């Protein structure tokens, strides 16, 4: 008997994952569909409903008390809507109402995907035991979330911690978001690769021009590849230092595909932090790699909804 | 009979102000001494004790339940110590213990001065009724504080909201704090004046080269003076947008001497915000001038300590 059983949905531009998750963060049932991201909104919703349908068909479903959703953003938790950049068929789409309906009227909690991953790292990963933390995903984009005073800080609309779109270079290159010099515009995987190519790096015989290939070149000592990661590290450090200076975090957890580059990114990042995190109360800031794997979004969506229940302490979120 | 009476101290590099403040934010008794900022730490403490002595001599003192301190930073609320940049005799100075002793053992609450001003604006000023706010002081330095989820967010050490020292120009000019391109390095009064002079602005017959004089020149149409305020406005906008993107504030309140420049600063600031605050959940961000006067530090220190008491709702902090 699982007394704290919840359903979780992790909705991204590539796949829609679902699970039943117990109060200890264990995934008991899974379902998944590709996201028909280029289709109309109702077609995308049918894929969500199919995932939910597999979950509701489980004999465990009768023990489920709520549904947590972590979605690609922007989301609007106060309105219950989502407008994921990579799913154009959903603009102010009433996802919470539609999921509630498909889940037999259960309570539904919506947060952004960066916030969900943060909930997972705080519950069971690298931010465990930290009352004030920034967790980041450095990948095709740069996302994040915050734990403040021991609690997930989702913000009124569920988007807080959006570190990829703070400007650390106010005169810098235009960002697709409309601003300039955003952390993501400098530190995301595609931008690391673009900068390396612009500065003369050339891929190997396999033609791979991704940030993974740039990271391999950097490990082999290619100075242009090293410099591109160092530049990304400086932007991340400025953003992390800004966050610590504003809200007093004591750890920054770095995950995502670019985060997996390891010390090629983390060593210059720690060094750059000494340049930007200078005030007494931010100097002890730690940087750690993420510990949660590909289930972070599901576990985090479950954590967020468990935290809203009377037995919230169990989730430690 | 004042049931919610507290004592408040506002400790800066120029003066040490004290007051007895009631649960409605009214100042009933005042005391003040110049800060002997260049003297040794015990001499500075004697000035604090003299202010407290005047307060404890009041017949109202017997109703006082706690002491709130807003101090120039950095402070360390967790250790109970202060290290104000402008008071070199105090480094990790145990101010909380010393004030508790001088106040007959009453509970003492320490916060940074930017946090104190934020508490005041949230209680009775421009941020009243806003659950998520950034309040700033733009003056010789740039400071600030945050209200999140309806509550003052001081951070574990009492320094949160330190927007003056987030970098918005990662390759920018070195800042005395050790970082580069900080908001304060671009937007403080002395930096507005310095930039105007470097770019060819010249003072009038009175020789006044302060930011107040630059503001007057800007109002008279001097293009170099206008440009210096516009540059400050861009840095403030990038910092405010970063804060909104990280923690979802819905209002930024601007006070301090430079803030008093009015539309010369606020008009380009609102315009620049449309450039940097681009994501859906930060686009509705309002900018408003501060409403609290020179008593903001005292009222805010009182608010912070009132908020820790069982009747916290009364202070609305």
Distance between the termini of chain A: 23 Å
Q: Number of folding domains of chain A?
A: 2
The radius of gyration computed from the alpha-carbon positions of chain A, rounded to a whole number of angstroms, is 20 Å
Query: Based on helices, strands and strand pairing, what is the structural class of chain A?
Result: alpha/beta
Name the beta content range of chain A: 15-25%
Shape of chain A: globular
Largest sheet of chain A: 5 strands, mixed
Protein name (chains A, B): ROK family protein
Family (chains A, B): Belongs to the ROK (NagC/XylR) family.
InterPro entries (chains A, B): ATPase_NBD, ROK, ROK_cs
Organism (chains A, B): Streptomyces composti
Describe what you observe in this structure.
The structure is a homodimer. Chain A has a five-stranded mixed sheet, with helices on both faces. In chain A, strands 10-9-8-11-12 form a five-stranded mixed sheet, sandwiched between helices. Chain A has ten helices and twelve strands. Chain A is an alpha/beta fold and about 325 residues long. Chain A folds into two domains: about 5-115 and about 295-315, Nucleotidyltransferase, domain 5; about 125-290, ATPase, nucleotide binding domain (Nucleotidyltransferase, domain 5, 2-Layer Sandwich). In chain A, helix 5 packs across helix 6 (about 210-220), helix 5 packs across helix 7 and helix 6 crosses helix 7. In chain A, about 35% of the residues lie in helices and about 20% in strands. In chain A, a hairpin with a 5-residue loop joins strand 2 and strand 3 (about 25-35). Chains A and B meet through helix 7 of A and helix 7 of B.
């Amino acid at each position: 008997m699982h007394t704290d059983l919840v359903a979780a949905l992790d909705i991204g531009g590539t796949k829609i994952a679902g699970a039943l998750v117990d109060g200890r963060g264990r995934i008991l049932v899974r379902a998944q569909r590709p996201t028909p991201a280029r289709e109309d909104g109702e077609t995308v919703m049918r894929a969500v409903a199919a995932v939910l349908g597999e979950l509701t068909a489980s004999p465990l479903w009768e023990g489920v008390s709520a549904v947590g959703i972590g979605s690609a953003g922007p989301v609007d938790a106060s309105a219950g809507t989502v407008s994921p950049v990579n799913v154009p068929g959903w603009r102010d789409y009433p996802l919470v109402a539609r999921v509630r309906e498909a889940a037999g009227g259960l309570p539904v909690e919506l947060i952004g995907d960066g916030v969900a991953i943060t909930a997972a790292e705080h519950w069971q990963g690298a931010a465990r035991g930290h009352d004030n933390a920034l967790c980041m995903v450095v990948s095709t984009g740069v996302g994040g979330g915050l734990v403040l005073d021991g609690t997930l800080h989702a913000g009124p609309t569920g988007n807080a911690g959006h570190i990829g779109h703070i400007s650390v270079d106010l005169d810098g290159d235009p960002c697709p978001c409309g601003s300039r010099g955003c952390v993501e515009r400098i530190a995301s995987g595609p931008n690391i690769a673009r900068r390396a190519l612009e500065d003369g790096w050339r891929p190997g015989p396999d033609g791979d021009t991704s940030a993974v290939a740039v990271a391999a070149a950097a490990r082999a000592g290619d100075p242009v590849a090293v410099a591109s990661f160092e530049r990304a590290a400086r932007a991340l450090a400025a953003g992390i230092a800004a966050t610590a200076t504003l809200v007093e975090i004591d750890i920054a957890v770095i995950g995502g595909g670019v985060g997996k580059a390891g010390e090629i990114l983390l060593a210059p990042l720690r060094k750059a932090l000494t340049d930007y995190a200078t005030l007494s109360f931010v100097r002890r800031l730690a940087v750690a790699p993420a510990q949660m794997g590909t289930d972070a979004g599901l576990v985090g969506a479950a954590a967020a909804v468990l935290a809203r229940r009377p037995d919230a302490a169990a989730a430690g979120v």
